[in-house]
Amino acid sequence: MRSLPLPLALTARLAPVAVLATAGWALSSGPDTSPAAKDGTPPDTTHRSASAPATQAATKTYAAAPAPCEALAGKTVTSLVPGAKAAGKEIPSTDTEVRRTCSWNALKGYDYRWLDVSFEVMETDEAAQKSFQERVADRSGGGDVPGLGDSAYSVVNLTTEDKQQTREGTVLVRAANALVMITYNGSDFESKKAPGTTEINKGAIKAAKEAVAALQDG
What we know:
The protein is α+β, with helices and mostly antiparallel strands. The protein has helices at 35-38, 74-80, 125-137, 197-217; strands at residues 89-91, 99-108, 111-121, 143-144, 151-161, 164-175, 178-188. The model is unreliable at 1-56 (pLDDT under 50).
C-alpha cells in the first residue's frame, strides 16, 4: 500500500495555553486607641474572628500536573488509536509542574486517529473555573457532561480540507484547581469521510474519564 500524505490540518497542533492566577492577602495594623485599650481591657474579638481576612493562601487540591502518558490504560489507547504505541509521546512544556500533554497518533490502513491528553494546574479553584468558562465560550455547539469532575463540557466539530473530512471531539473538565483537556479526531483517507460524531464523542469522553481518575489518584 502506498503511503498517503496527511492533511495540513492534522500536522499542526495548538499547544494549550497555561493561565496562571495568583492570590494574596495583606493585613495592616496600627496602635489601638479604643477606650478598651486605654483602660487596659482587651478588646472583644469574639464576633470579629468569623469575618477576619485569611492570613494564608488556601491549600491547592492539586499541586502539580500528573504524567499524561500514564493517564490512560494501554487498552484504551489501542482502542481509540489503532496502531499507536501505548506509551505515547509527551509534548515539551516550559513548566511541567503547571502543564503537561501526551499525544498518540497512528495511521492503520486508511484510518487515521489522533489523541491528546492535557493537564493544567492553577493556583486556585476560581482561576481554573474562569479558564474553563472562557474555553467553553470559544467552543460553541456542545453540551455538559454530567458526573465528570466539578464541571465538564464536550463538543464535536467537522472540518473539510482538500475534500478530506476530519471530525474532532474536545472534552474540557475542571476538577478543583486543575483542568483536563482531551482532543480526539479521525479521518478515513480512502473514503475521504470522517468517523461519526457518536464514535468521536464517546471516545473523547472515555479518555477524559480515565484522565480525571489519574489526576485524582496522582
